[in-house]
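Researcher: I'd like a candidate sequence for this fold, 135 residues long. If you have to choose between options at a position, lean toward the conservative one.
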């Protein structure tokens, strides 16, 4: 009897590819990185954790909502770190709000990994007023 192959661990390259999928607005690719029992905790919301989305269907819907709210959303200047089943991605979020004002703020994702996938994506973002609309 042979043991089942262990899934490949999450690496810095994995987090780089995950970030690239965010910038392409590629929901299928993003969900390919997520564990089936994943959790996404947003930067804002009514709870201490922001808003908690549990399970792949809820996470998919919440991820897609980011591009509905900010259609030109980008996460730039990524810096990634992985140690075992824990990782982080630091970035600068940019985009245009519905009123035309510009968003530019730093943030970090804190991850937990399970079975070679992202089990938890916990977002923290600086609270910064939007910048005036581009002229």
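Model: Candidate sequence:
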């Amino acid at each position: 009897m042979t043991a089942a192959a262990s899934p490949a661990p999450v690496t810095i390259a994995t987090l780089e590819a995950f970030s690239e999928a965010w910038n392409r607005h590629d929901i299928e690719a993003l969900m390919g990185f997520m564990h089936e029992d994943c959790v996404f905790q947003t930067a804002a919301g009514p709870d201490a954790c922001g808003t908690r989305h549990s399970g792949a269907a809820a996470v998919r819907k919440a991820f897609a909502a980011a591009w509905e709210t900010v259609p030109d959303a980008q996460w730039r200047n990524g810096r990634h770190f992985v140690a075992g089943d824990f990782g982080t991605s630091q970035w600068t979020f940019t985009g245009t709000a519905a009123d035309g004002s510009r968003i530019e703020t730093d943030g970090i994702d804190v991850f937990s990994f399970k079975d070679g996938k992202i089990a938890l994506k916990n977002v923290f973002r600086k609270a910064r007023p939007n910048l005036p609309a581009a002229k």
